[in-house]
Amino acid sequence: MKRRKLLMIPGPIEFEPEVMQAMSIPTTSHVAPDFITSFKNALEMMKKVWLAPSGQPFIIAGTGTLAMDMAGANLIEPGDNALVISTGYFGERYFELLKRYGANVDILSAEVGNIVPMEQIDEQLSKKNYKLLTFTHVDTSTAVLNDAKSIGQLGQKHNVLTILDGVCSVAGEEIRQEEWGIDVVLTASQKAIGVPPGLALLVASGKAMDTWRNRKTPVRNYYADWENWLPIMEAYSNEKPSYFGTPAVNLVQALEVSLRLILEEGMENRFLRHQKTGIAFRAAMDALNIDILPVNNKIAANTLTGAYYPKEINGNELLAAIGKAGVITAGGLLNDLKTTYFRIGHMGAVNRSDLLATISAIEYGLESTGYKIEKGSGLKAAQEILNKQ
Ligand code: PMP
User: Fold this and answer.
1) Which CATH superfamily is domain 6-11+267-386 in?
2) What is the pLDDT of residues 164-196, one digit of tens each?
3) CATH level 2 (architecture), domain 17-265
4) Ligand 1 atom nearest to CA at 200
5) What is the pTM of this model?
6) DSSP 3-state of 125
7) Is the minimum distance from the CB of 64 to ligand 1 under 6 angstroms?
8) Where exactly are the structural domains of the chain?
9) Is 124 in the pocket of ligand 1 (CB under 6 A)?
């Protein structure tokens, strides 16, 4: 019997066996020719996954927060105006982060489960001369999906740099960085990119790189400074040895494998598969009378679902029962509402069997904590979607 539980949290996620195999290759030198080729390949493939053929990719050892930090540190100078469009926990994080670099930061916060209306963003951008705006594509605390294309357009209209926190969306939700005019799209390895935690990844537009080049003051974060990292990325792209900080060698090799698998699937197929997965999972929740956080399906993320516990049951008991049925899910993240909802990741390598096993475990958990359901109704609803061509 397999003793391992299925990891269905919003990151780290289940990884492909080939990615895990790449992790176990004996660690090589960061200047070994094979490794240089892997790094170069990973950089090239990032541009394809991000749909940003002329962007500048960065692969740095660190977490998603470092990727956020890197965009903030390199693009903000003291006194710059910045706007944070917040849909939850990670919007708040960006607000704090940008203040550290001396920005005057305004924040537009959505109601829980909603997005900030585009008209409100448009209006705010007309009020002041903003240098940049940040938004969370999928806020992992609410499972709300932002309209990245429209925000990209607003950024262009007002000549404001746009930073998309795609930690819970890149390689899952549709993002066309260059076509949508988004200046920085950042993520971390452990989510839909499909590599164990430890890599901060971002692609910056020419406009973002020029803004950094034209700075009048030094970047206030030594590790994150593009001055240190751009020559390293360029050296790897030109297959030359280089060093600033030791790269996470095994993770970069795993990244090369995962990006190859992502591109083999194809970005269009991948976006559609995530959409179908999200729709199927939400149909299952609906059939079980479980409410989700997003106020409507149009703004519901496809990479994860945030669902309220039914009032009559104890959330901790539910998660424990789901765990007993072999599936690990996550509790809530928003400070005020933490104990009222749970989150299920369904991105990256997740397949039909994983999804159905998860719904079945949730049904088991609900029944065993005393919530009345029609057994199999969640599974049936999901299968009806998944069985469609
Ligand atoms: N932004 C979002 C949307 C996230 O989901 C996360 C991680 N859950 C982060 C930023 C921060 O990433 P990390 O935990 O890798 O620092």
Assistant:
1) Aspartate Aminotransferase, domain 1 (3.90.1150.10)
2) 999 999 999 999 999 999 999 999 999 999 999
3) 3-Layer(aba) Sandwich (3.40)
4) 15
5) 0.98
6) helix
7) yes
8) 6-11+267-386, 17-265
9) no
